[in-house]
Design brief:
The protein is mostly helical. Helices cover 73% and strands 0% of the residues.
Length: 274
C-alpha cells in the first residue's frame, strides 16, 4: 500500500466518525456514507467493491492488450508500405484494427481518449493540472470543521471573558450580550478557517518539496540542499507527490483563497446565529 491509497486508508478513520453521524438520519436511504470506507463497509459493500475492482482491472488489461496489438499491426503495415509503396497494407491494417476493436467491444472514442488540455480539464476533479490543486479534499474539510468549531468557541469565550465580563450581570439577558458573543463566535470561526486553508496549502508545499527532494537525492546529477536531504529522510514516500511534484499557487492566490474560505464560513455561521 503506498501513495494516495495509504493516505485514503488513514483518512477513513476520522471520516468514519463523521459518516456514522451522517448515517443516523440517512443510513437507510440512497445517501448512506461509507460504501468505500473500510471501517463502515458492510459485507455486501466489500463484495461489490471487490467485484468492481476486478472488473476494472480486467477491462484495463483487455484495453491495453488491444492497444498493443493495434500498435504492432500499424507498425507492420507502415514497414510494408514504406518497402513497397502499396496502399493495400494500410487498408488491411485499418480493417484489422476495426475488426479487433469490434470483437473486443471497444471504440476509439470511449476507450482510447487522447489527453488534450481540454480533456484534462474535464477529467481533473482535484485540479492537478491547475495552479491551485486540491488532492486531499477530505483533509481540507476536516481542517475547516475542526478549525471552525475551535475558532468559534475561542472567539465566543474571548468576547465573553474580555469584553463582557464587567457587564455580565447588566446584560446577561440583553440582545447586546447575545449579539456580541455571536460576533465573537462568527469572527473566531472565520479566522480559524482562513488559517486552516492557508495551513493546508503549507502542508501540500511540504509534501511537494519532500517528493522533489527524494528525486534530487536519487539523481547523481542533482545537488540536494541540507533541507532537501532532511525532508527526503523524514517524510515517507506515501506522503509525497513523487519527484515530479504538483503545481502550487502563488502567495496572493493563497491569501485570496484563505479570505474566501473565511468569508464563506462567516456567512454560514452567521446563519446559525440569527
Amino acid at each position: 500500500m503506498e501513495g494516495r491509497e495509504a493516505i485514503d486508508t488513514v483518512l477513513d478513520v476520522p471520516m468514519a466518525a463523521i459518516g456514522s453521524a451522517w448515517n443516523i438520519p440517512f443510513g437507510k436511504t440512497g445517501w448512506r456514507y461509507g460504501k468505500d470506507n473500510w471501517i463502515l463497509q458492510s459485507k455486501a459493500d466489500k463484495e461489490l467493491r471487490k467485484t468492481e475492482l476486478a472488473n476494472a482491472r480486467n477491462y484495463r488489461e483487455r484495453r491495453d492488450r488491444v492497444r498493443d496489438d493495434i500498435l504492432e499491426i500499424a507498425n507492420a503495415a507502415k514497414l510494408k508500405y514504406e518497402a513497397t509503396g502499396d496502399n493495400k497494407f494500410l487498408d488491411l491494417a485499418t480493417q484489422a484494427t476495426n475488426d479487433l476493436l469490434a470483437n473486443e467491444g471497444l471504440t476509439p472514442e470511449n476507450d482510447y481518449v487522447i489527453l488534450t488540455p481540454e480533456v484534462q480539464d474535464l477529467r481533473d476533479g482535484i485540479g492537478l493540472f491547475t495552479n491551485n490543486p486540491n488532492p486531499y479534499p477530505a483533509v481540507e474539510a476536516s481542517m475547516y470543521i475542526g478549525g471552525g468549531i475551535a475558532g468559534s468557541v475561542k472567539g465566543e469565550k474571548l468576547v465573553r471573558d474580555k469584553f463582557l465580563k464587567g457587564a455580565a450581570k447588566s446584560f446577561a439577558k440583553s440582545k447586546g450580550n447575545w449579539l456580541a458573543r455571536s460576533i465573537g463566535a462568527v469572527t473566531g470561526g472565520a479566522l480559524a478557517v482562513g488559517v486552516a486553508d492557508y495551513g493546508y496549502e503549507g502542508m501540500l508545499d511540504l509534501m511537494d518539496r519532500a517528493g522533489k527532494a527524494k528525486g534530487y537525492m536519487r539523481d547523481p546529477n542533482q545537488q540536494a540542499s541540507l533541507v532537501d536531504a532532511a525532508l527526503a529522510s523524514v517524510v515517507p514516500d506515501a506522503l509525497t507527490f513523487g519527484p515530479q511534484g504538483i503545481n502550487r499557487p502563488e502567495q496572493m492566490e493563497r491569501i485570496k483563497n484563505a479570505t474566501s474560505a473565511a468569508i464563506w464560513d462567516a456567512g454560514l455561521t452567521a446563519g446559525f446565529c440569527t
